[in-house]
Q: What sequence folds into this?
C-alpha cells in the first residue's frame, strides 16, 4: 500500500516537471542572462504634461534595468511584488511639447524595446492642494468672530434661562 502511494506521488511529480520544463525554457526563467530582454512594455499615460510623471512597466527584467528618453533623466526599473519591473520617470519641466520615444533595457540583456508618448504644453491640474494649504488671516478672523458670537449667544441663552425658572436649573 505504501509503495503504491509513493509511486503515485513520484509519477505526479515527474509529470509536473515534464509539463513545466518546456515553459521554463521558452520564457527564459532561471535568470542565466539569456538575453531575452523586456516584453509587454506599457507606458501610461500616453500623453503627459511638462513636469508630469509616466508609469512604465515591463516583464522579463528580473535583474532590473533602465528607461531612457530625451524627455526625462535615465530612470531605474525596479521589480515590484507582482513580478513586473516598473519605473516612474518625471518629465522635464522645460521639455518641448511633441512626440518622444523611450527605450527600455534590462540589465541582463542587450535587447532594447521602444515606445512612444507625447508631451503636452503646460502644467497639469494642481489637484489635492486644498487640504494642505493654511487658512488666510481673513479666514481666521471670520472664524474667530463666529466662534465668539456663538459663545456669547450661548452664554446669554443660559443666563436668561436661569432667571426665567427662578434661579433653579
A:
Amino acid at each position: 500500500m505504501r509503495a503504491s502511494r509513493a509511486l503515485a506521488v513520484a509519477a505526479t511529480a515527474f509529470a509536473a516537471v515534464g509539463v513545466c520544463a518546456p515553459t521554463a525554457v521558452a520564457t527564459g526563467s532561471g535568470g542565466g542572462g539569456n538575453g531575452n530582454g523586456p516584453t509587454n512594455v506599457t507606458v501610461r499615460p500616453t500623453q503627459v504634461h511638462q513636469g508630469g510623471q509616466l508609469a512604465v512597466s515591463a516583464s522579463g527584467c528580473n535583474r532590473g534595468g533602465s528607461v531612457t528618453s530625451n524627455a526625462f533623466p535615465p530612470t531605474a526599473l525596479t521589480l515590484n511584488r507582482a513580478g513586473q519591473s516598473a519605473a516612474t520617470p518625471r518629465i522635464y519641466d522645460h521639455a518641448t511639447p511633441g512626440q518622444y520615444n523611450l527605450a527600455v533595457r534590462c540589465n541582463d540583456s542587450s535587447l532594447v524595446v521602444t515606445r512612444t508618448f507625447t508631451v503636452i504644453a503646460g502644467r497639469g491640474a494642481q489637484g489635492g492642494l486644498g487640504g494642505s494649504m493654511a487658512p488666510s488671516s481673513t479666514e481666521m478672523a471670520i472664524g474667530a468672530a463666529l466662534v465668539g458670537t456663538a459663545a456669547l449667544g450661548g452664554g446669554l441663552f443660559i443666563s436668561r434661562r436661569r432667571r426665567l425658572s427662578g434661579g433653579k436649573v
User: Anything to note?
Assistant: The chain has a mean pLDDT of 78.
